[in-house]
Amino acid sequence: MFRVEFGKSGKYCDGVSRRHFLQVGVAGMGSASLSQILHAKESAEQHGVKSKETSVILLWLDGGPSHMDLYDMKPDAPSESRGIWNPIHTNVPGMDITEMFPLQAKCADKFSLVRSLHHNNGDHFAGGHWMLTGRGGASGARTPGQSPCFASMATKVLGPRDPSMPAYVSVPYASSIGLRPGYFGGNFLGVQHDPFQTGSDPNNKNFQVKNLNPAKGLSIERLQERKALLKSFDQLRKDVDQSGMLNSMDRLDQKAYDMVTGDKARKAFDLNSEDENIRDRYGRQTWGQSVLLARRLVEAGTTFVTVHFGGWDHHWNLKSGMESYLPRVDQAVSALFEDLAQRGLSEKVLVVLCGEFSRTPRMNNGGNGGPPLSKGTPGRDHWGNSMFCLMGGGGVKGGRVIGSTSRLGDSPADRPVRPGHIHHTIYRALGMDPGIHFLDHSGRPTVAIDHGEVIHELF
Questions:
Q1: CA-based Rg of the chain, rounded to a whole angstrom?
Q2: Which bin fits 275, alpha (ψ -120 to 50), beta or left (φ > 0)?
Q3: pLDDT at site 224
């Protein structure tokens, strides 16, 4: 087994203290075999899906952002329902958004809004599972993931756009409702299809991604010698292995080795080498710098990057929470679209912004079951019956609004869209056949997406 040690580490999310090393099983480093990739591409072409080199950046608003306070304002609704802020016009006629998004209002022609998204579930875990896997099965009473994340399925088939880069990365970590990697994980595809997590705050002055630099005193030459020696021992085990597991482990070893010994991945993760003015444009805080790192990764050849924006569960104190969060989102999202355009990457990178569900159209009294205002100022509760999803780039047309909600914003009024529609659309942008099947734990073939269709208006 090829192992590169990296000194001590803290406790992992499972609570077990382990030595920090890069070894077989490192999350997100494995990719599909060449035969799998060729078969998937052939299948996609047979179904009319064109081969592409697109990547995806998913900005995940963990906790559930309110559609009526961000992208689906209802200024004519009763006072207890409509948002605290006023809508403003964007550079796209008819697409109004919150006044808290003045920067996005200037570049709305670069993205589109799906306003009729829904899955009708107000459970954090069920909602997160629906949005990230396209299937039900999880709930607050049964939190483990039941299906792979759609990003894991995509990167299993497509691999990285550049072989020296990890296919699937989460910045700074993969977390769905406090579960790591939670519903971002590969589940029955195997841990090798979990995302690689940077594990530290990109906004820190001394930000450094763990596992990308050999331990002190362990040179690249010594790594090469150790690898050659271990390969001769491993071959004997592979000759008697019937499960194929060791071959899979070897692919993980190779990806780990390539990343440590090569320059491209380390340079892509080196955020300190980025132009200071560009860093300022994204915002000198965790969310902004995480989005900038995501851009660097897809530019270098990573296929799928998720960025975690946590803390959207505003049952009370919604006003102060939004006043803190929305300017950061506005700066990071607008900077990303403008940066991609200036770099000629708009057609190569799809940006997606969403959360597990939305919030109730009607504001509560801040009591959360107790006396009014006993918890704080009014907020909104869980709501999965009407949600939003922002999408732009990667072939998805900008300046379009898909669907609408009722006068009170409580349900789709036209063009209802489910999570599967979002996933179909992402797969179209990636050039992946949504009809491909994967074997689950029982050996039963499971289709990548079992409902919905491409949102054709976006193309």
A1: 22
A2: beta
A3: 57
